[in-house]
Write a structure and sequence with these properties.
It contains three helices and three strands. With 107 residues, it is an alpha/beta fold.
Length: 107
């Protein structure tokens, strides 16, 4: 029935429950699961006008924290998929504007 199932995950309890349901569906249909953790880097840049090193350090810390959370989330979901015998791939993405343009900014 399904060959591939894409799971959008954010580390929340709700996304974990949804991932478990997706993994179960994949198990029943012999599908592969891809979990996607999206980092909205623009949140880290909001309010950054005149950039000082202190602000830049805060931006980097925020991005690192998001990456750590994503790695932890994808690891947990990957372990669940492995237990269920479901092929798994974890990926990171970044948010885009609603018009499809890239939200990343350069400083």
């Amino acid at each position: 029935m399904y060959e591939k199932i894409l799971l959008a995950v954010d580390g929340s309890t709700h996304s974990q429950k949804a991932a478990e349901a997706g993994i179960e569906l994949a198990r029943k249909t012999n599908a592969k699961v891809t979990a996607l953790f999206v980092i909205d880097v623009s949140k880290e840049y909001e309010g950054v006008g005149g950039v000082s090193w202190n602000i830049a350090d805060d931006v980097v810390k925020g991005i690192k924290k998001s990456l750590e959370m994503g790695n932890d989330t994808l690891k947990i979901i990957g372990e669940s998929a492995k237990k269920a015998g479901v092929p798994f791939e974890g990926k990171f993405g970044h948010a885009a504007r609603s018009d499809g343009t890239d939200r990343r900014r350069t400083i």
